[in-house]
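Propose amino acids for all 335 sites.
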């Protein structure tokens, strides 16, 4: 008999739990504040754009590092001289003094190819430019942090605002139901001669006011919930239910008041510091541009000249190559 009662209790418990879960999903997906914040971190467009800016800044750093690595370029050209250029030579060269002889120089088809290597040996602007790129990346990271903090604050504010409006709406709904019962009871008493007309009118005015407040509260609740979904990056036509009404956050207390209100903990202050450092780096970059720079260059290529397009059927190819150093010393840049 005891086992039978326990089994019935378990069935009733599972049934109640199942009904509660079904009721939540029938209305919409349940969201806690933590889930709302996590959803916003993944879907808010401002946070997404800030993440893209961080990726772009990292690519700029990689690009700056790549500029100091060896640069290798391959080149090739094909030329079809439709009309060869004519050069006038003095006849004395060919045993015809006193005359000029017209001679066409070159061949109709020319092909050339080559590979060039360049390597910076000393560039005073590289270190400063790399530092500026890293500062830009750090700035975008701080902006991402600032944007995330703002979105999380807005989500939390709208979350609790929506819950407060929902509580007010429920309170007004209870007052509306009570006022409706009172109005119906008073009207019945008036029909039976047990109440006055003025009493019915007073209750009806109160009933209409409560009804109007309830309708306004429902509109405010929908608007606040839509604003929350917009900040989260969720489609407005999605159905969600806010689950928890309270949230406890365990935050370690600071040792002193100065620790709690340290200006170094503020993201906007960190952004200002990074911006100042970026201006200083840009100034140093401009100043280092007046220092000499040295680079190494090497080239190897080959070319061929034909009157027919038979470059790969034999014939001579003429190689050429060089190595050298390039020194650049700025003297005057027009002020």
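Proposal:
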């Amino acid at each position: 008999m005891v086992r039978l009662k326990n089994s019935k209790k378990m069935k009733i418990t599972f049934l109640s739990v199942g009904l509660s879960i079904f009721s939540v999903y029938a209305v919409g997906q349940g969201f806690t504040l933590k889930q709302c914040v996590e959803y916003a971190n993944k879907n808010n467009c401002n946070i997404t754009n800030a993440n893209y800016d961080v990726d772009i800044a990292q690519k700029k750093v990689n690009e700056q590092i790549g500029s100091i690595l060896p640069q290798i370029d391959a080149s090739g050209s094909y030329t079809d001289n439709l009309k060869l250029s004519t050069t006038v030579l003095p006849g004395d060269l060919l045993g015809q003094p006193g005359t000029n002889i017209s001679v066409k120089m070159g061949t109709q088809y020319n092909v050339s190819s080559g590979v060039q290597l360049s390597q910076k040996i000393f560039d005073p602007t590289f270190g400063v430019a790399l530092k500026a790129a890293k500062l830009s990346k750090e700035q975008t990271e701080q902006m991402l942090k600032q944007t995330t903090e703002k979105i999380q604050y807005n989500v939390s504010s709208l979350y609790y605002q929506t819950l407060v409006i929902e509580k007010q709406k429920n309170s007004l709904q209870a007052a509306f139901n009570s006022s409706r019962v009172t109005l119906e009871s008073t009207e019945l008493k008036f029909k039976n001669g047990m109440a006055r007309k003025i009493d019915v009118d007073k209750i009806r005015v109160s009933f209409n006011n409560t009804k109007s407040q309830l309708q306004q509260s429902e509109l405010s609740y929908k608007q606040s919930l839509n604003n929350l979904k917009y900040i989260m990056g969720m489609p407005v036509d999605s159905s969600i239910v806010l689950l928890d009404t309270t949230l406890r956050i365990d935050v370690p207390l600071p040792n002193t008041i100065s620790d709690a209100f340290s200006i170094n903990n503020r993201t906007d202050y960190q952004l200002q510091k990074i911006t100042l450092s970026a201006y200083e780096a840009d100034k140093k970059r401009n100043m280092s541009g007046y220092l000499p720079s040295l680079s190494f260059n090497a080239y190897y290529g080959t070319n061929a000249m034909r009157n027919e397009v038979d470059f790969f059927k034999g014939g001579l190819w003429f190689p050429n190559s060089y190595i050298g150093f390039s020194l650049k010393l700025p003297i005057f840049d027009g002020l």
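The longest strand covers residues 109-122. Residues 47 and 147 are 6 Å apart (CA to CA).
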